[in-house]
């Protein structure tokens, strides 16, 4: 019988360990998954920073080209104004003004192309930013799930230990032991009472006579007086 119980207990231990291992596997897998996602997030954020830097540079170059085009137009106007005032020869002023306007056209074209490139780059930045935000949300969700999973695992292990301890106890045997203890105590109390009665000395006849003489029964005397009074009221003579 003992061998059977030992085998059953070992089987229970193996099953409990299997349950714990099955619970630990998702925890380890989730922890590794979170670590991998954090590495991906770090790499994605680095790429996002580089793409943002490139977009900012494109925007700056487009703005500079636009400002340069505006400056060439301003210079062409100044040249024509000097021609009108006679400060510059007309032919020379017009030649220089045409050159300025030509450069203005080149700068304006660069500004348009630069802004187009910037818009494309900005679209990539927005897309990558959305991926980063989604990845952050996923990591946060997994971390919360991991906390919950760890708490559930601890609760399950604690419950298993309590159930194992309860399984080792024998409620019927415990109740039987308490019943036997109660019977033994009652027997001891009965014996103590019996020995107490045997230990008390028996009263002698002289003690009984003296007790009767020293303490008359007042209740009997009062009852006799009441009877005599009632007989007198009723006209009954002794």
Considering the chains and any ligands shown, give keywords for the structure.
single chain; Helix Hairpins; 2 domains; rod-shaped; disordered N terminus
Short description:
By secondary structure, the protein is mainly α. The chain has helices at 2-85, 90-168, 171-199, 205-214, 218-233.
Please, could you describe this protein's structure?
The chain is mainly α and about 240 residues long. It folds into two domains: about 1-170, Helix Hairpins (Orthogonal Bundle); about 185-235, no CATH class. The chain is about 90% helix and about 0% strand. The protein is built from five helices and no strands. The chain has helices spanning about 1-85, 90-170, 170-200, 205-215, 220-235. Helix 1 (about 1-85) packs antiparallel against helix 2. The longest helix is centred in the first third of the chain and has 84 residues, at about 1-85.
CATH class of the largest domain: Mainly Alpha
Identify low-pLDDT runs: 1-5
The arrangement of helices and strands along the chain is HHHHH
Compute the average pLDDT. Answer: 80
Number of strands: 0
Topology overview:
Layout: H1 2-85, H2 90-168, H3 171-199, H4 205-214, H5 218-233
Helix pairs in contact: 1-2
